[in-house]
């Protein structure tokens, strides 16, 4: 039934500014879930084989990437649509409003968008509370974490450590975002030496938390699509040296060659 209703909804949504349509859609999705309409429209998700990744079992292969449910307050609603995992965020230690608007632009002829959001999010404490309030989703929840815009790179590790510790009790896995082009200077943390320093600190903290809590939370890093071959090789070696659980490929490109 969703396939029949989407074309009508799309026409209405495209009359709105892109970010307003995005936010309105999330509110409508949550409301439809609360009153049972979403379940009636979506029906039961098709049967799918489980998949193992990062030492975790996922109900299916279909996941929702970070950037759509930035606050983690729509997990149950997206779960109704059949996702096997939902990655929330990017979440930073402190709330921040992101970049000035407009910051989301449609390219209908390319069926694409340009986003310049800038990690707008409610902060890690509220993000954790939102995940804790999820009651019906049976899949995996990942936390995509980042640094605040006003945190200098030399102190970025402190932001990531704070988010790691805060998310640890409720996250199934944690994704470290080093690759958004919309936070000034963030991609410099993908340089091999900087990434090695960051991973060394994060892995040490993971070991401490695992000993304290008796649970292990896999760690992934989200990388940019604009790295050259030498950068990819250097970064890959860092990931191997520090026993990274997964790589998430990829974040937003800054390449506009085909547009």
Largest sheet: 6 strands, parallel
Overall structural domain count: 1
> Regarding CATH, which class?
Alpha Beta
Shape field? globular
Write the H/E string, N to C: HHHEEEHEEEHEHEHEHE
Number of strands: 10
Strand percentage, roughly?
Answer: 15-25%
Helix content estimate: 25-40%
The side-by-side strand order for the widest beta sheet comes to: 3-4-7-8-9-10
Spatial separation of the terminal alpha carbons: 34 Å
Unreliable sequence segments: none
Could you give me the name of the CATH homologous superfamily?
A: Aldolase class I
Structural class: alpha/beta
The CATH topology name reads TIM Barrel
Quick structural summary:
By secondary structure, the chain is α/β, with parallel strands linked by helices. The protein has 8 helices and 10 strands.
Give an overview of the whole structure.
The protein has a single domain (48-249), classed as TIM Barrel (Alpha-Beta Barrel), CATH 3.20.20.70. Helices cover 37% and strands 17% of the residues. It contains 8 helices and 10 strands. Strands 3-4-7-8-9-10 form a 6-stranded parallel sheet. A two-stranded antiparallel sheet has the order 1-2. Helix 7 (192-213) runs parallel beside helix 8. The longest helix is centred in the last third of the chain and has 22 residues, at 192-213.
Helix/strand layout:
Layout: H1 2-13, H2 18-34, H3 37-42, E1 51-53, E2 56-58, E3 63-64, H4 75-80, E4 85-91, E5 104-107, E6 112-115, H5 124-132, E7 140-145, H6 156-167, E8 173-177, H7 192-213, E9 219-223, H8 229-241, E10 246-249
Helix pairs in contact: 6-7, 7-8
